[in-house]
Amino acid sequence: MLIKIIIILFLIIIIGSLFSALTFLYKDGGSGTRTVKALTIRISLSILLFILMMLGFYFGIIPGKGQ
């Protein structure tokens, strides 16, 4: 149950970072660096979430489909 909450929180933060990048893009007109930083954070969180899910599957915290 804890892993589901962690995954959902990660997804909410990733979506929030995506919308903040959209806001920065709209306000700065594409000339600032805030958009790039927000997208970098989003990509880093996505990679971290993927790694955590793979580790959870490897250690048996996230069961396979047939189990």
Whole-number count of domains? 1
Strand content: under 5%
Helix fraction bin:
over 70%
Task: Sketch the major β-sheet.
Answer: none
Structural class: mainly alpha
Distance between the termini: 16 Å
Strand segment tally? 0
- Please give the radius of gyration in angstroms: 15 Å
Low-confidence stretches: none
Query: What is the residue-mean pLDDT, rounded to a whole number?
Result: 90
Count of separate DSSP helical elements: 2
**Shape, per Cα inertia axes:** elongated
Taken in chain order, the helices and strands follow as HH
Folded structure, characterized:
The chain is mainly α and 67 residues long. The protein is 78% helix and 0% strand. α1 (2-28) runs antiparallel to α2 (34-58). It is elongated, with a radius of gyration of 15 Å. 4% of the residues are buried.
List keywords for this structure.
single chain; 67 residues; mainly alpha
Summarize the model shown.
The protein has 2 helices and no strands. With about 70 residues, the chain is mainly alpha-helical. Helix 1 runs antiparallel to helix 2.
SSE inventory with pairings:
Blueprint: H1 2-28, H2 34-58
Helix pairs in contact: 1-2
